[in-house]
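seq:
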Amino acid sequence: MNIREKYNIQEGPNTFSLFPNKPSVNLSKWFLAGIVVALVALFCFQNYFSEEMKWALSILLVYFIVHSWYDISIRAKIQYTFDTVSDTIYKKNPLYSKKKIMKLSEAVIFVQSEMGSWHYALGAKKSQFVKNHRISEGFSSGRKSDKRQDEYEKFVLLKIDKLIQDIHQKNNELST
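struct:
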């Protein structure tokens, strides 16, 4: 699968949009299948567990089912659109319509790490560490991850950086 399909990238002359969480859908589906198998196993071997243990495991498995369902049906459908005409970055989510999250000219892309992996995040210049948005899948160490990171940087980040530079150049021309 190429990077355009992986992130469902859509390009226009003045826009660029992507679905940054789409690559994790397959992992969430496999995780959900494993949870269903665990639920069936819990049901089959319920005589070997105490009542409290059955309830604790059931609650934990239901939580994981809800979390996986959220990842598959909502989180994977979050879309970011970078628009140079309106100098705006939009976020679109299945739960609400298109929402302006920041000006494109104020956007900063940085690396954010969490629990042994890291990803690219997007934030406004003055508050990127307070409020930011994940715009890539998670990366870690290893050849496969390095290859995915290299593809992401050479295609997606270059396009976003070009849009940000174009808007800065446009603003500089207007101010002179």
